[in-house]
Hints:
Layout: H1 2-12, E1 16-22, E2 29-35, E3 38-46, H2 52-56, H3 59-72, E4 92-93, E5 97-103, E6 108-109, H4 117-130, H5 151-160, H6 169-175, H7 179-197, E7 204-206, E8 215-218, E9 221-224, E10 231-233, H8 236-239, H9 248-258, H10 266-290, H11 295-311
Amino acid sequence: MNKITTVLKHHYDIDAIDVSPQQGGWSALAYKVTGNGHACFLKVYEKSRASTPKWTALIDQYVPILIWLFRHSGLKGKIPVPLPTNSGQYKCEDDDGIYLLYDYIEGETIGDRALTAEQVEELARIVAELHRYGEDIPLDTDAIKEHFEVPFLRQLRNALSNEFHHIPNDIQLLITPYTDRFIELADTVDRLSVRLRNSNVKMTLCHTDIHPWNLMQSGRRLLLIDWEGLKLAPVEADMMFFVEEPYYDEFMSVYRKYHKSYAINPDALQFYQWRRKLEDIWEWLEQLLFDSQNAEERKVTVNYLTQELKTIMDH
């Protein structure tokens, strides 16, 4: 914790009297920080993790857009924005990590609980408001624009072919039954990538990672958190999270009050659904292949990978 207190003092002038671990997400560790008379929430992206560059490379590009939405859209109070460092930056870093600091939100993550009817309605309003904005906002969106690229597929294919002998034996046994399905889905995603790249599909701002672990209830407010994946993309980048939910019809009845003519683009929907599945599988594999994990961490990662592998056979 000494490193964290040093970072807080040097970059935020916060004298931390308590730093307690919180439940983090896929991308980062999390801490509640108490000091200077108030509480903050610190996200720590460890540089030792293979996935960290993916989550942190565009911080300086997406955070200004997030702040603009907070100030100029109907999302104020519904999204968190990072606190600036002493030098006015959105992030700080040291040899071990990259850090983002937020005001602490008193509330709880929805997590494994089902959304209530009120939460579904509010979530639909949040997503509909987000989708009102696109390239017309007065900020540069080029860095977050979707180009339908799938660079991880090359790494995944290579791991399953040329580098397969480097994969631990237990993981080889786990993934071998799915190899043909990997190839089939990868080919489908590649074809859809080319088709969408050559189309003139409309793009808006999208969160791209909407699930109950990224939703918080704070009093009567519902908040959408973890905006590392903010993109200018077809709305199906968000809609893919709703189409198979039992509340989909209720969600869409609210969403279409704001976007009356919306109809799902089936190519974009399938592209995002399968790209997400393959990308999630690659990230679990990446952790097993390249990250330093103890026995318990490895066991958890293998369990997650096993669950993801089963889902690609269900469709």
